[in-house]
């Protein structure tokens, strides 16, 4: 595992990660386990909140946006499915790339929470990685398909 060193992060609850911004269009990618967890717990059909997407393996779905915002974002900027939120949202403002045997965490410059709060270190990234590995095991992510 590789992760950014000496980095601070504290979420500012601005909800930029839940919407398109002037810097980039936000793509909230979902895996099969994300879809199944939301469907099961909220008695929703996937077509109500996601659409299929190709070329983003291991993710196979894209969260629907309404008025350029995640379909689950509330008016007060809270997440309607916070406890059930997709892996990609739990990792934000970081994402994980697989480089050979390594899982490499990268950070987006679009998050105002970076550089604020306490330093985050290895434990923070290990916790995220263990959640990601659990998902990847469920979908049997094969290096050859990345
Ligand atoms: S963009 Fe960053 S600071 Fe803003 S809500 Fe998302 S994680 Fe928090």
Give the names of the bound compounds. Answer: iron/sulfur cluster
Identify the overall geometry. Answer: globular
Which class of secondary structure composition applies to the elements?
Answer: alpha+beta
Instruction: Report mean pLDDT, rounded to a whole number.
Output: 92
Tell me the radius of gyration.
Answer: 15 Å
Report low-confidence residues grouped into runs of 5 or more.
none
Question: Order of helices and strands, N to C?
Answer: EEHEEEEHEEEH
Provide the helix percentage: 10-25%
- What's the number of domains? 1
Number of strands: 9
Instruction: Tell me the major beta sheet.
Output: 3 strands, antiparallel
Per DSSP, the total helix count is 3
The largest beta-sheet arranges its strands as 2-4-3
Gap between N and C termini: 17 Å
What fraction of residues sit in β-strands?
A: 15-25%
Short key terms for the protein model shown above:
single chain; 146 residues; alpha+beta; three-stranded antiparallel β-sheet; two-stranded antiparallel sheet; 3 helices; 9 strands; 23% helix; globular; binds iron/sulfur cluster
Describe this structure in words.
The protein has 146 residues and is α+β, with helices and mostly antiparallel strands. It has one domain (7-139). Helix content is 23%, strand content 23%. The strands form four sheets. The protein has a three-stranded antiparallel β-sheet. It has a two-stranded antiparallel sheet with strand order 1-9. Strand 3 (50-52) and strand 4 form a beta hairpin. The longest helix has 17 residues, at 122-138. The mean pLDDT is 92. Bound molecules: iron/sulfur cluster.
